[in-house]
Amino acid sequence: MTESRAAFAELDSTVTGMVRFGDNSVVTIVGRGTILFSCRDGGHCALTGVYFIPRLKSSIISLGQLDEHGCQVLIDNGVLRLRDRERKLLTMVRRSANRLYMLPLHIARPVCLAAKQEEEAWRWHARFGHISFDALKRMAKKEMVRGLPMIEHIARIKQPRQSRRSKPRAEAETRKKLRVLRTDIGGEFTSLEFGQNCAEVGVGRHLSAPYSPQQNGVVERKNQTVVGMARCMLKAKGMPAAFWGEAVTTAVYILKRASTKALDGQTPFEAWHGRKPDVSLLRTFGCIGHVKVTKPGLSKLEDRRKPMVLLGYEAGSKAYRMYDPVERRVVISRDVMFNESASWDWTKSGARKDAQQQQAAVSSTFVIDEEVEKLGHGGQGGICIQGGADGAPAVDGLGEGDDDAARQSSCLRGSAGVAVGAAPDAAEYLDADYDGKPVSYRLVNDVVGPATPPGLAAQVDKAEELLFGSAEEPPSYAKAEKDAHWRQAMEEEMNAIMENGTWELVEPPPSCRPISLKWVYKVKRDERGEVVRHKARLVARGFVQREGVDFNEVFAPVAMMESVRLLLALAATRGWNVHHMDVKSVFLNEDLKEEVYVNQPPGYVVNGQEHRVLRLRKALYGLRQAPRTWNQKLDTVLKEMEFKRCESEHALYTRRAEHGQLVVGVYVDDLVITGASKKEIEAFKAQMKKTFRMSDLGLLTYYLGIEVEQRKDGITLCQSSYAHKLLERSGMGECRPNKTPMEEKLKLSKDSKAGKVDATSYRSIVGGLRYLVNTRPDLAFAVGYVS
Q1: Higher model confidence: residue 748 or residue 680?
Q2: Enclosing H/E stretch for 665
Q3: String of b and e for 303-316 (b: at least 16 CB within 10 Å)?
Q4: In angstroms, rounded to a whole number, what is the distance separating the alpha carbons of residues 133 and 123?
Q5: Per the count of CB atoms within 10 A, which of 210, 266, 273, 307 is most buried?
Q6: 548 and 559 co-located in one domain
Q7: Confidence category of residue 121, pLDDT binned at 50, 70, 90
Q8: Same-domain pairing of 160 and 304
């Protein structure tokens, strides 16, 4: 509910009513409508069912109703995160001093209104060759493919209802022999060469009668479906009929990944290959794509990308087939930035005539991008075309290129006439000639115009990060005390220490050598790299401790990464959910056996008692014996809960309960929990919360730098953020990608003429690569070779 009339994009004044507040006061509702607000990525979202109450002093939003409508509301450590149904971050705000969350909604001013979901539905409708919305909704609901979001649409549209190499490939994949081939009497099937080939491999032939398509009905009906889809794709983008071959090939590619009534809950691709297809790389046929220029010797002022037309997907590689209307050739490239709402103007400059005359060029002349082995960020950035009057920027041609010409690019820097954003499809501006969807359902971004320029997406994230707290981790207390977020973090740490009775202030005993303390600051991020918490930790300088005096044994077991992967594999095989818990101030939970003295912490020295020291009653971070002390405490607690420790992995505990087995993996203060029964998992969490100060992180999504994605068909581990940080740290953020982990037949020699490198940095990089092997075993040999 809001008091601002100007905030509404739509308002129904016929809706009236009363609202009663806690103080028994009553205000009058004079309307209900929809408010549009800008998202973090520059797009727009609609907030529906908002009451207009002029007497309100401040606007109020119900988190409960947001949750009912599929939004994700997460409140953790004083930070509220609000995500939409697709789990895209809408806003993030810290708790205010009065314990409220003040959401900074930036109201949009649209010319016309359309739901974001409608935009998404139309986009996927076009990507799938204009198949029905019912089919799209069914595929998303039954999770028949990967990468397709939930489709909700209120409108409907009407739709009309190489043989020699295919045989051995089909037989090898199905392990079944081809016995009979039924065809019509087309010339390609009645030739002498084709007949001899069938006879050689022992395949029988059935030919239908002339002008009797009903005798081969399955194939004829499928041909009608394929041609119908190809015709729709060509008409939607106004493409010449010369591209019918490419359209048919793309239609077949799409139909293999679309639902069909003949297969209940499966796509043809899954029925044939035994795995779900990934459709996240699909883009609208015939749309404009800006292909990276790989011409060698490119000058600083030359454009880095060239506009081309998407013809489909290259067989055998994760790359796109892009047509260059200017040079009339096909380019195979993985590095493409798409504007799916834009179309090429085939009526100007004789383009349509050239396309018809040069049809052979479409299938015979092409350039292969050196990076087609692995799709990177192709199509993942929004793009705005800033061309001239003809709608197409005039740029130089794409060079043939060589191995050195292909370089991976995470974003387009300094390109004339093209602006690239970091968010997927963040700025797709509607083409006036595009008739792929009715005007009433055009997306808000297109009608309003560039509310947030795509190139500023990264700057917006940076500015918001500065608002919520700097991403820098201060090296000293002197710098940290100037920042309110770090001051609050230190207060939280000191409160936890005092609540646990960690120390007592005493006079220093004779020959006392107190250990100094230091503040360590860490920015906590989630699996997407977003700042979630500022954490300050008071650490003892344990390196000055003396063995036998300040400590004895120090070993504490932690779960090996192999054990964690095995645990996740077990959960994926049995369909278990994996949960994550974190122990707060973990080393403050157990009493110290040794007599240890430390100095008073920086910034918290008691006035008038500066000479006194602190005798530790409980362990602190940094003490040599702290991990072992904590592990002994946790081991005792888990055994009291009837857990048994694995003999071959002391950081792994199991318990057989009434509803099934429960498994817990321990890595210092991180607990990975899985089991057959959700009830047992929740009961265990409740037990742990009663014993320790715990954070329940829900389903496991991020563990020691590893991103974890749990789905119904398995669990995926990824370290993409870690890999990018490792590249940036080693000065290779703009490096050229390679197809193999290491150079073939590489031989390293100590007698190198290259300049000396810093040994410490080298070891650090190798160590980082070794950790990357946890999810990239293909790097193991190369990393071992340079270790």
Answers
A1: 680
A2: strand 660-667
A3: bbbbbbbbbbbbee
A4: 11
A5: 307
A6: yes
A7: confident
A8: no
- Band the pLDDT of 195: cuts 50, 70, 90: confident
Give the separation between CA 405 and CA 284, rounded to whole angstroms: 28
Residues 178 and 71 in one domain: no
Report which residue type is found at 57: K
Q: Alpha-carbon torsion 631, 633, 634, 636, what sign?
A: positive
What the block records as the tokens of 140 is 């998303």
Rounded Cα–Cα distance for residues 466 and 472 (Å)? 10
Q: Identify whether residues 43 and 179 lie together within a single domain.
A: no
Q: What is the pLDDT of residues 402-454, one digit of tens each?
A: 333 333 333 333 333 333 333 333 333 333 333 333 333 333 333 333 333 44
Query: pTM of the prediction?
Result: 0.40
Q: Which of 714, 708, 570 is nearest to 278 (CA)?
A: 714
Burial (CB count <10 Å: 0-12, 13-18, 19+), residue 442: buried
Whole domain around residue 386: which residue ranges? 286-468
- The pLDDT of residue 551: 65
Cα angle value 332/336/338 (rounded, 5°): 125
Q: What is the pLDDT of residue 461?
A: 43
* φ, ψ (nearest 5 deg) of residue 727: -65, -45
Quote the mean pLDDT of the chain: 74
Domain identity same for 103 and 147 = no
- Contact (CB, 8 A) for 526 and 702: yes
* Token pair in block for residue 488: 């609050």
Say whether both 539 and 400 belong to one domain: no
**pLDDT on residue 109:** 54
CB 226 within 8 Å of CB 249: no
**Which one-letter DSSP state was computed for residue 488?**
H
Would you say residue 254 has pLDDT above 70? Answer: yes
239 and 309 within one domain: no
